[in-house]
Structure of Stage 0 sporulation protein A homolog:
Amino acid sequence: MLETKVLLIEDDPTIVENLSAFLKDEGFEVISSDGQRKAMELLEADRPKLILLDVTLAEGNGYSTCTAIKAKYDIPVIFLTALGDEFSVVTGLDMGADDYISKPFRPRELVSRMRSVLRRAGKSGGVVHAGDLKVDTEKGVVSRQGEEIFLSALEYRLFLVFLNNRGKILSRGQLLEEIWDVVGEYVNDNTLTVYIKRLRDKIERDPQNPEIIKTVRGLGYRMEVS
């Protein structure tokens, strides 16, 4: 099984050494940088699937680095920092971060967060088919018979949650947990209903009789296509 490549941007060599060793045991390949310039070079050369980014760096800072990354690459970013106050969290998310974990953190919690972010971002790589839908997870494009289906950011993330859990029943609570913290708006139960309807309107041939995302009465929803 191929290891998932991760870029760790951190200026503390002890953290780099210990975290790299732990993540390797968990199936990740870690490359590292202590500042923005080298990080951008590694991004261009190695194209990692996920970035772990500290706020305080030897050169530059995490916020500016995150902005530079997001301007050029569609790669998920998780902030790692001792600055766990609400302002710092909000600032990081406003910069485009996909998640935020405060130091000191439990390594297994970090790995769980990493895998969750990778699932949401659909970074398993390549092109995936769901029935007659074609999903390019690198470009974030969904199409049918060569015609692109334009999804909003939240609709696409919701679609990826179903795609990565095909055949499984997902409760409304599970869906809310997956998407609430990765969008710039509050998502409640009523909002979820609206977005599922919008998603069906776009991806189903007959939204009134959905064949892709089906309702499992009393339990939730399930994507049935293979």
Summary: Residues 107-121 form the longest helix (15 residues). The helical segments are 13-25, 36-46, 62-72, 86-94, 107-121, 153-163, 172-179, 189-203. The mean pLDDT is 83.
